[in-house]
């Protein structure tokens, strides 16, 4: 029996979040406007139109930049702990809207409601983190080699931070960037993914409320809905000091090159090809849960999704059989219904890429132990629901080296741990990795300089999901960027070294004499 969206209260949530049937996709200085093409946002859940958005044209973009520039001059003068107060209030507002926003994320993007709520929780967590950080933007002091001199480092804001985000984390990635950028004294311009524009508008409505209540310039947070044309304008605009880009390696390569060309700064958070090594000493009960959740959660559309399992030959058949059994229990359907484990892919194009990858894998010799396919009929009208599948492969297959954003899990055998680590590292991407073992020596080897080459390396935890307290990001074709916790805030500031002479003479550094 199919359930209508009313049963899940989505219409009420849309209304609470200020989403209408027709929306303007530019928000700048408290005004909503837009003069570009019309974009329609369809839910991959039921294929229905959720709302229309007028996107930005290039003149709209110029207006946004001017508003942001003005807001920056005012905002950078507000003390950091007071900027933290803005973020604290934003975190409180997010708590109020958690349910509605989590639901919209689920409905517009297709991840499960629980994962939608989890995404909003990440936003709340980064706000809490940033509030404390707003009193800790420390620089070093150092001893000068010259008498009567003092030296120290301080951090200043950068200016305008441009955030270009991917569809699969349609709200959290924005907040990871903004919470830090704001406490550091920057203003932000966000181009959400054109595949989840309503999530962008909902977030912008929430922060606009906070800015209004505090009588702060609304240009502190601006948003501009558009496609690659607007994205490209941001990337090439000298007014934008830092581009934080989350998306595919293909687009990231263009973005990184163009920003570097103008000596701008960038944070690149690109594709992953994440593996878990199952050693002969793995606790299989927990390992299987970690692997299955990592592979099928968000229908395989997380940058940290588990794409490869590298399994010790002695347990290969056992693990394979357990996986087949576990996959047999997976429920696929409306992600707002908490009985389902897996929702739809984002759109038909993603479905086609999934099918093409399966074909390619078969051509290269892949043996499917759990078959894939597109689900049809009642409850699957959007045409975006696919079956999570598993293929036995070689790591060297071209398709295995490539990130397919879908629930396809590749399994392969190894003999020695060195060989397994080499396989784990032998892909172009370097985001997340994990080892399942109860042997301390194996775990430590995996974490050592001879181990995983990824930005994230876990022991007895899957590859997907990360806490905001750590720096998040990856190496190689994942782009090298870091977001979120640790000392990542430094990316959003410029470092200045100051030397002060409090004597009445002018000694030069390195003992150089220059007498007149
Ligand atoms: P995508 O690269 O297609 O699009 C990402 C964003 O880039 C969108 O907002 C898009 O409009 C914009 N864009 C497209 N062309 C552009 C251009 N020439 N200049 C500037 N902007 C442009 O990615 P997607 O399909 O939305 O997301 C999936 C990808 O994102 C996957 O590869 C996934 O691994 C990656 N991702 C990475 C992380 C991470 O933290 N490493 C997190 C989430 C997603």
From TrEMBL:
EC number, as in UniProt: 1.2.1.3
InterPro entries linked: Ald_DH/histidinol_DH, Ald_DH_C, Ald_DH_CS_GLU, Ald_DH_N, Aldehyde_DH_dom, ALDH7A1-like
Active-site residues per Swiss-Prot or TrEMBL entry: 269
Domain Aldehyde dehydrogenase: 39-497
UniProt KW keywords: NAD, Oxidoreductase
CDD domains: ALDH_F7_AASADH
Cited SUPFAM superfamilies: ALDH-like
Keyword Oxidoreductase found: yes
Any matching Pfam family: Aldedh
Broadest EC class assigned to this enzyme: oxidoreductase
Superkingdom of the organism of origin: Bacteria
UniProt keyword annotation of NAD present: yes
GO molecular function terms noted in the UniProt entry: aldehyde dehydrogenase (NAD+) activity
UniProt record similarity statement: Belongs to the aldehyde dehydrogenase family.
Subunit field text: Homotetramer.
Protein name: aldehyde dehydrogenase (NAD(+))
Organism field: Kaistella chaponensis
